[in-house]
Prior knowledge:
The complex is a heterotrimer. Chain A has 12 helices and 2 strands; from the N terminus they run αααααββααααααα. By secondary structure, chain A is mostly helical. In chain A, helix 1 (2-32) packs antiparallel against helix 9 (211-236), helix 6 packs across helix 7 and helix 10 packs parallel to helix 12 (289-303). The longest helix of chain A is centred in the first third of the chain and has 31 residues, at 2-32. By secondary structure, chain C is an alpha/beta fold. In chain C, 40% of the residues lie in helices and 23% in strands. In chain C, a hairpin with a 2-residue loop joins strand 9 (221-226) and strand 10. The longest helix of chain C has 20 residues, at 119-138. Chain C is globular, with a radius of gyration of 19 Å. Classes of the chains: A mainly alpha, B mainly alpha, C alpha/beta. The A-B interface holds A 35, 37, 96-97, 100-101, 104, 106-121, 123-125, 127-128, 246, 250, 253-254, 257, 261, 287-288, 290-291, 293-295, 297-298, 301-302, 305, 315, 317 and B 34, 89-90, 93, 96-97, 99-101, 103-105, 107-108, 111-112, 114-115, 173, 218, 222, 225-226, 229-230, 258-259, 261-262, 264-274, 276. The complex binds adenosine-5'-diphosphate and magnesium ion. Residues 13, 16, 18, 36, 38-44 of chain C line the site of adenosine-5'-diphosphate (ADP).
Amino acid sequence: MDLLLQSLVNGLSIGSVYAIFALGYTLVFSILGIINFAHGAVFTLGAYFTYFLIGGQNNGTGLLAGAQLPFGLPFPVAIILGGALAGLVSVGLERVAFRPLRARGADPLLALVSSLGAGLVIVNLVQYLIGAEILSYPTNVYGHWAEQHPSLNLGTASFPIQIRTVQVIIFGVSLVILLALLYLINRTKMGKAMQAVAENPTTASLLGVSTDRVILFTFLLSGLLAGISGTLVATSFSISGPYFGLAYGLKGLAVIVLGGLGDIGGAVLGGFVLGLAEALVPGEYTAYKDAVAFLLLFLILMLRPQGLLGRRLIQKV
Amino acid sequence: MEAFFQTYGFLLVYMCLQALLGLSTYLPLMAGQLSLASSGFYAIGGYVAAILSTQVFHTSGAYPIGYLLLETLLAGLLSGVVAVVVGIPALRLRGIYLALATIAMVEILRVVSLNLSITGGAVGIFGIAQPFSSPLGYMWLVGPLLLLVMFFAYRLEGSRIGRAFIALREDELAADAMGINPTYHKVLAFALGAMLAGVVGAISAHFLNTWNARQGTFDVSIAVLAYVLIGGSRSFAGPVLGGMVLTALPEVLRPLKDLRFIVDGLLLMLAAIYLPQGLANPNWLARRKTAPVREKT
Amino acid sequence: MSLLEVSHMSRRFGGLVAVNDVSLSVQEGEIFGLIGPNGAGKTTLFNLITGLTSPSSGNLHYQGQDITRLPPFRIAALGLARTFQNIRLFGNLSALENIRIAHHIHTKTGVWAGVLGLPAARAEQVGVERQAWALLERVGLQGRAFERAKNLSYGDQRRLEIARALALRPKVLLLDEPAAGMNSAEKATLSGFIRQVRGEFGLTIILIEHHVPLVMGLCDRIAVLNFGQMIALGSPQKVANDPAVIEAYLGVET
Ligand SMILES: Nc1ncnc2c1ncn2[C@@H]1O[C@H](COP(=O)(O)OP(=O)(O)O)[C@@H](O)[C@H]1O
Ligand SMILES: [Mg+2]
């Protein structure tokens, strides 16, 4: 029972990271109707950016072997700055990989390939400059106290629920980001403009919404979310190399379809569903844990392709 | 000349194999179905060959070609059966949704093959017997196969079933109203592509000498899709050209050393943006055959 | 017995009842007109008959056979062919190819016979080629055979779509606003053409049309839809003098 609760709390924690990562995906889809396959690469970049911003040294054997910034920022500043840099990269991607296609009204499938090419460029650039080695964050990124208490008991002495402290912190941080995001989307002018463009770009531009600015902002936000979630995952495990984000990129697809492609609430729900489902895989089957996302993806597509929260679309003849 | 074949024998065979994989994705696309499942069937085919040749057929010396052909046959059949079973429910989905379902299938197959003992788990299966004494020897098998499949695709485009495929690609609903059974033809196109991918997998397992879960991944799916889109998706020549060019590219870029994969990604991106019709654009041919295109009235 | 029997068919889209309890029967060989204001449910009724939309309730019988739940391709194979209000040709393909495709149900070449060019497949191909050209000629498009359908003029596209439907050798031809966008001379030609093909191909025709003179002159019987309901049915004279029709339909027009 305590083990089950432990798994559930862990599932919520990883689910919250899936949720903010997938939100970045789904925001772009809701605005442009395309899937940005470079999103996983931006996630990777975020983790690297933050690592260097806190003064981490490159243990890799790439061109910049041994390199280190001459300063180290406090982690809370670094993660935001790292996310912002990832956001800028994402905006750059929009410029080079998406905008030319959009300008021509090209088949959305081509955006899939061009964003994939862009993702390959990023991943291989990281490999070239940094190297393929694992980079680990120092154990004290979340402060001295967290380092001294690597796990917390959320239960009682007789009924222990042991959770890694970093999981609890990640959960807290993700929740704060989720709430901020919901506020941004539902309460601010830019958020409303985003919703308007997602609903109908033509009407939105007639109403005076600048579609270009909304798209730019969406990519910035999407990259920021990817970068921060990349950092969070890296502090919990490590940066496993340039391909760090690939698996998350693919699982993120499962998350956004699970909730309903392009649906913001759906991405959050999907993230938690996946996190919990993975956490509930019995111990003897952990090797199959990575298949859970895709099993869910396949099932939802067979049973309810519009996703848990999506509306059913009727084709007009 | 001989030195060239010595050096590039492996690459030449590999280019043909990748061109065949491109065709395996082109077949369902001909019927309007964007499937990324080729790499999954490729993996299945490879495992069929790897398991049969290392555990079932015990031979010594050069591996008999007959056994290899039997393996390809079985690999093709198994892939075809899996395609029908998966395809009937999955092909109700359209566009990106179908693509996502096929990605899910590929990833599930990958995780399962990582964990089964018959597929050799994470290390895979090695020491797969060689029917030919050099990589270039495979050309005797792969060359004719590529020509046959190209002939098949070319003739299919002008035949009754191929027309039904193309009608579905152009407008599924109108095709349905014209008496074309959408499910049947979509599953058929999907299964034909799957069988081809299975056959290519079986040959590739021998050619590469080893087979593991890294052979059938999302990356491979996307690489193959890129062959079709960059080569051109509206005629069989597209995937063949795309498969060959994109496979040769890292080799051509070899002087760039470690930078070549970066340039590879860059070229993929640029091609998607600036060659929207692909390298093999049937319009260029069509223009000559028919009356000049008049302005819209 | 009637050829096509629509009984109590309804179709809802959310709260909207696009077709509301419509019953009618079409006799063999007649030209049956379907009129009504925009949004009355005429196209939806066509979609119900051809299986493109499934009914919320009601039944559909063709030659005594229940075809209510059959998929579109089966209904087409039984002999009901149609055109679309918003033309749905295979736009990137040539005019000729559009018609070749529509021979699908009358041919049986499989994958291998087609690819290998076996004698039976070749013979079939020759037949399709001959009939396709004959149909193109019948609608006067033989000179545009290799033109992409989407590059044809609007009128030519309408005619090509009719030719494509005729390639199915249907018993019933359903035409959804075939004269839309034509000038009055073209409309007169079309009207003559429809009458001719009925005779030539032994067709029963169901026709949706807005242009009242055309419908009145062409149709043997007319049904009037308004807000999904059938408000009148009968000969053109009877329908034209029906007070409900005058109010609902003509009232809107003027
Ligand atoms: N697929 C659909 N989904 C939702 N509403 C539809 C659909 N098809 C038709 N309608 C609605 O049903 C009504 C009837 O449409 P239609 O049959 O096209 O009318 P008509 O052909 O008589 O002009 C219209 O209000 C239309 O908006
Ligand atoms: Mg209509």
